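Task card 7
Instruction: Convert sequence to structure tokens.
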Amino acid sequence: MSFLHLFEHHFHTPTPLAKPKDPPGKAAPPKADAFLLEMSRADVKTVLEKLKSTPEGLTPEEAQNRLREQGPNEVVHDKPDP
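Output:
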């Protein structure tokens, strides 16, 4: 399982990359870059601890809390220019 998939699956939120309002091609904020780099080098146990999750994932209650607080787990794509 890739880190990004693990992040989105367990954290139930998209990775902290460019926001939908950002212009196409804009890089992720430095804080997000640093976090992604740190997690890409970490072992699974560390990643799960940082994401406050377990190998089994979130409980339904925690998933609902995160959905309510952070919104749906979706990847935002730029629309192609016409």
